[in-house]
Amino acid sequence: MINKLYLDYAAATPIDSTVLDQMLGSLQYFANPSSSHSLGMEARKVLHQQKQRIAMVIGAKTQDIILTSGGSESDNLALHKLKLGQDPVVITTHAEHKASAKSIEALGLETFYLDLDQKGRINLIEFERILKLDRPTLVVIGMISIEVGLVRDLKLIKKIIYDDRKRRSDQQVDHSIYWHCDGSGAGGLLPYRVEAIGADSLSLNAAKIYGPKGSGALYLSDRAKKLISPLVLGGGQQAGLRSGTESIFLATGLASALELSDKKRKLEVQRLRDLKKLFARLIQAELPSESVIINSSSDYHLANYLHLSLPGRRGLELMSQLDARGVIVSTSSACDASDQEVSPVLLALGMELELASSSLRVTLGRATSNDDIIRLVKGLKEII
């Protein structure tokens, strides 16, 4: 049997052994955290401690954290039935998390999709122009452009939003701006500090940071808590915003994975960038010129992303051929479950049809080594 080389870490990560150990240790707290007896109170205390750990990593208050089943639920909770005021508009892009995109469609509001260049960068002039329409505004822009992994300039986006809020206040325009940011795609390779990001709500997903699937969280600012409505009704847990008995097991997984990712981030980012440089050198030395185009080579892209185009070939065919050689990659975001030949996100980025249809998304992880990069290049050589 061929030893598999996994290079699809943007889709899912294995559970880290440290995270798993902490999760297994939490199984002793099996009582319902909402129960009033001593075991229930003990479970409630442990659950609160996990939310404290999550809040500490992102620089939030414990009461700002709503535990969810993952990034998709967090995006849905943040966006559905928002109390935005009369005649609201949405500002977003075609390169957002699928759950954010579908939630926007469900709102049925007038939506402006910002133009993106081939590197996924937002047209900020257009962004400022739409904000000046002075209507209640929902901004949905995540930490990265999915597919190619371009890191958004959140500092500049925050400045534009905050400056326009001040302008509206000075001009006594009584229409607010609400910003939801999906952080799932960052994979723990960017800091999640909510004050620095500046969004009203932020989605987190344990499955992308070496934690368990089915575990996530939604950060909500004080103003956001007044504007959102619950998706799940029931016993009124989590301030009535997400009913249902909380899982200490899954909350421990998210808390542990977040802490570990935060601790490892700086060294891991540098290690992954070195691996990408090795890949670029090997491609240049061993493959015909222009046979492989690297679309994510700059430091503005997430450190583990290698988005490639192989002109004249089909992405799905290339993925299958690599899979047969034991190299596991993808053609697009796993959040889009359809087997489309061409990702609409890549077309929205202005990528030519030929390049978009010949694309592969390779994402590296903690287990990826120099030898793995050499094996990847060898696999590409065999199928070109």
Tell me what the structure shows.
This protein has 384 residues and is α/β, with parallel strands linked by helices. The protein folds into 2 domains: 5-14 and 264-383, Alpha-Beta Complex (Aspartate Aminotransferase, domain 1), CATH 3.90.1150; 17-260, 3-Layer(aba) Sandwich (Aspartate Aminotransferase, domain 2). The protein is 41% helix and 14% strand. It is built from 13 helices and 14 strands. It has helices spanning 17-26, 38-58, 71-79, 98-107, 124-131, 154-170, 194-197, 222-225, 248-286, 315-324, 344-348, 353-357, 370-383; strands at residues 5-6, 65-68, 89-92, 110-113, 137-140, 144-145, 150-151, 177-182, 201-205, 216-220, 293-294, 305-309, 327-328, 359-363. The chain has a 7-stranded mixed sheet, with helices on both faces. The protein has a 3-stranded antiparallel sheet with strand order 11-12-14. A two-stranded parallel ribbon has the order 1-13. Strand 6 (144-145) and strand 7 (150-151) form a beta hairpin. Helix 3 (71-79) packs parallel to helix 4, helix 5 (124-131) runs parallel beside helix 6 and helix 9 (248-286) packs across helix 13. It is globular and about 65 Å long. The protein starts with a strand and ends with a helix. The mean pLDDT is 93.
Radius of gyration: 22 Å
Poorly predicted ranges: none
Shape: globular
What structural class do the secondary elements suggest? Answer: alpha/beta
Give the mean pLDDT: 93
Distance between the termini: 24 Å
- Please list the strands of the largest sheet in the order they lie side by side: 2-10-9-8-5-3-4
CATH homologous superfamily annotation of the largest domain: Type I PLP-dependent aspartate aminotransferase-like (Major domain)
Helix residue percentage: 40-55%
Order of helices and strands: EHHEHEHEHEEEHEHEEHHEEHEHHEH
